[in-house]
């Protein structure tokens, strides 16, 4: 009988060792995961701070408060992207304005009269057209048309003189 007890005892010991090993691996995996999360969070915060620094430098260059010849090529690329985004936003506003001028409900596209404040079909509030200032000038930086009285360009943010 002692032979059977020895085999059972050996099997129990192996099982206990296996459980201990599994627990250790699980603890290690949890710690690795925790440290990876710390690295990920720190990396995201770091990226946000670098982004903030970049925004500050970018704004200073655009306002001509600080110039750095190495940054001019990057600033020019950003200006191009600013113009593309600005023009796309202007197109969106034009389409939305056409919808209002045509006096169509923005929700259900039912025709409404010039004096309707709400859609008769769905009850959505109908935006009223806003008056526009026709006096414009060209931005000296990006050459986009802006309101003549603007202190800063609505496209690129450059201070107007």
TrEMBL record:
Residues 19-32 have a biased composition (Polar residues). Residues 105-157 form the DZANK-type domain. InterPro entries: DZR. Residues 19-43 are annotated as: Disordered. It holds the Pfam family DZR. This is Zinc ribbon domain-containing protein. It comes from Salibacterium salarium.
